[in-house]
TrEMBL record:
GO terms for molecular function: oxidoreductase activity. InterPro entries: DSBA-like_thioredoxin_dom, Thioredoxin-like_sf. It comes from Cylindrodendrum hubeiense. Residues 52-206 form the DSBA-like thioredoxin domain. It holds the Pfam family DSBA. This is DSBA-like thioredoxin domain-containing protein. The lineage of its organism: Eukaryota, Fungi, Dikarya, Ascomycota, Pezizomycotina.
Amino acid sequence: MYESQVTFTIDTTCPWLDQALSQVQSPSVPFTLYFDPYQPSSDLPDTVPDRSQWALQHKHNDNPEAQQLYQAHMASLAEPLGVPLTFAGPTGNSFHAHRVIQLVQESDGAAVTNRLVDELFRLYFAEGRHPAEDDTLIAACVTAGVPEEQAKALVADREKGQKQVKEKIRTVGMDVNAVPVVMVEGRRRDLTLDGLKTIADYVKALKTIVKESS
């Protein structure tokens, strides 16, 4: 049996990959999902009150048509998940969320971390919540299966894991220019998918690895 690690480099709100993993179940090539942190806007303030206005200015060069095209594209990709997207609400620096994700990954493993990332996506895009505020992170941890008191302590101790996660972000950033990036390890070769893809794209890559590694 060959065990494949799937390394998912994200900025906390990329949901599609686990949908693909649920469709590709192979006893001969089990997949283990691992999350790497990346911050495209590490200098972002802790809180930006209006994420839509910030994106218009900083991502779409004050071009409303470009922003509308982006939002329509995101909505089309999210449609198979049945998750309504909102582009309103606050945003802010995502480091605190990365710190929590990495610590949960170390202590609770892949399945809990995957549920945590999914719930952060839902809270951010469906409910318009801040991606890294304490209440958002505690709620996501509890939904993922982390005991509430453990979640509160983990979120409150902002020094815990800070140095290691900063170094991890720095190291990952040396090889990554944009996210998400998915790297699937195979017996014969690894496959890397850069940029946001459809679920079908990820399924195709996973099936290729199964075929080549069985």
